[in-house]
Amino acid sequence: MKNTNSQIIALGVSILMAISFLAVISSAQKIGTSYSIDWQPVPKVDNDYIDTTGITSFRFGATWAWMDEVLDSNRNDYGKLADTLLSYVPSSEDVTKIIKIGFYHDSYMEEVHDYKTYKVDTAYVDTFKNFCFMLAESLEARGVDHFVLHNEPDLKWSNDSLADNWMATPEDFAEQCYWAAHEIKQANNDAYIFFGAFAGPDTGATNDTFVVRSVDSILNAGSFPPLVDCIDFHCYGESLTETEAAEIAHRLKTFCNTNRNVDWSIMETRGPRYNFPVDSLVYGTGDYTIKEQLIWGMQIDFPPWSEMQVLCSLYVWVRWEDPDHLFLSENWDDLEDEKIEEFLNRVPTFVDSGATFAHWFSAYKKNVVPLPTPPNGHKGYPTPMNKVDQIIKRAETFPANILDTDGKSTPLGDTIKAYIEGLERRYYPGAQQT
After folding, report:
1. How far is the C-alpha of 221 from the C-alpha of 41, rounded, in Å?
2. Can you tell me whether residue 231 is helix, strand or coil?
3. What is the per-residue pLDDT for 5?
4. What is the pLDDT of residue 378?
5. In order along the chain (434 residues), what is the average pLDDT of each group of 10 residues?
6. Phi, psi of 70, deg, nearest 5
């Protein structure tokens, strides 16, 4: 017989309370979530969100290019840039605020064979350094001292045909992060800096060439202690058992704490993941798959399909092919059970193993059409195939997030809050239960 959401939450909290007396956890550890400007955050996370979920940290990301546009429209006023960034972040003083700086900037990047490498061109290194210093100085005045440098640089970095991220060497990435970290700490000596935000520790990232070379390069760059405080990883996978999560945590703890004397974090994790059957044939169209039909609609049909038409057609055909698919909105109640199980397998395991931060990505279940992909240095304007891939990816992603866009509590949100309250009672036994 299938457990109800309330039964699963009660069981999970009982387990967490039982193990809380066995684990020694740093009171600095934070549990939270995040979103980025390019994921169209609607609505913004505010203090009501904090009250609903209990999260104690929040990460917001934007690219150098996006922030530069804000500066251009505000006469290069970094104070207004800082205020704009913080308008997307809850104001509560009980929440650690983390700003992720994406390195993309079309005007300042090095080019190799007409490709933008994401590495700042040598002519603009001082521009980049000044940007990092001024941003950190303005944010420090507003109580923000946590920074993530770029995002998933190891993702496809050596694949010229698909890469839409870092294209230079791991050592180049470490050098650019060193410049950023140096300027940030010149502006704010108390800054805490995350390095990496590497993709895929569940697939053995601690043996990955990019990860090892870039981490060792920045840790051995000459500053003691190192300018970066924490190595960050993203951990997905279709699903993880508690044992599998523990194996990942052990590898990361050994890689960071034991072998390199640096903190580690999991700033993105989520599960389960179920792909839509987009390679199945569409009924009545002959030999076209769902994905091919969506691309055809955007590329050949007249007028071309809008993003909303693509999204709606995707749902229609998935319902026809697999009406019980858990990522269809009518099946989300059953999906919540699996999300709770994934959370209980992942986050407490990472925290108990010493992760300084553990974030469930992302904040909201957003049934929205993504914004058009901006031009970039690798593929130019997005093709219909790029757009369809993006729409499918997001439709396969947002149901695993935490709250509905109405901000009301969800079983997963309730589980996260109960877990965090359990952690807080470890540090403050007399804390009032809510």
Report:
1. 37
2. strand
3. 63
4. 44
5. 56 50 54 81 85 96 94 98 95 96 93 84 98 98 98 75 74 97 97 93 66 94 86 91 94 93 96 94 84 93 89 95 96 96 97 96 75 47 81 90 90 97 69 47
6. -60, -40
Q: What confidence score (pLDDT) does residue 155 get?
A: 81
Cα 379 to Cα 119: distance, rounded to the nearest angstrom: 17
DSSP character for 162?
Answer: T
First to last CA, the chain: 31
Q: Tokens 């080019």 belong to which residue? A: 111
What are the beta bridge partners of residue 31? Answer: 358
User: 98: which 2 tokens?
Assistant: 């983390």
In Å, how far from its chain's centre is CA 323? 29
Tell the residue number behind the tokens 């700086």, with chain if given: 101
Nearest to 35 by CA among 366, 307, 347, 292: 366
For the entire predicted model, the pTM comes to: 0.89
Nearest to 365 by CA among 26, 46, 89, 35: 35
Q: What token pair was written down for 167? A: 């294209």
Instruction: Kindly tell me the burial class for residue 238, based on how many C-beta atoms sit within 10 Å of its own C-beta (0-12, 13-18, 19 or more).
Output: exposed
- Spatial neighbors of 96 by CB under 8 A, at least 6 apart, are 30, 32, 56, 57, 58, 146
All residues at 6 or more sequence positions from 159 whose CB lies less than 8 Å from its CB, including other chains: none
Is residue 106 a contact partner of residue 376, using CB atoms and an 8 Å limit? Answer: yes
Side chain identity at 142, as an amino acid letter? R
pLDDT at 351: 96
Say which amino acid occupies 113. Answer: H
For residue 329, the tally of other CB atoms under 10 A from its CB is: 10
The Cα–Cα gap between 335 and 79 comes to 42
Select from 86, 219, 103 the least CA-distant residue to 146: 86
Is 44 strand, coil or helix?
coil
Rounded Cα–Cα distance for residues 411 and 409 (Å): 7
Q: Cβ(391)–Cβ(307) under 8 Å?
A: yes
Rounded Cα gap, residues 37 and 53, in angstroms = 21
β-bridge mates for residue 146, sequence order: 98, 192
| Rounded Cα gap, residues 210 and 415, in angstroms | 36
Asked if residue 355 lies in contact with residue 22, where contact means CB atoms within 8 angstroms, the answer is: no
Q: What beta strand segments (E) does 248-395 contain?
A: 263-269, 357-360, 364-365
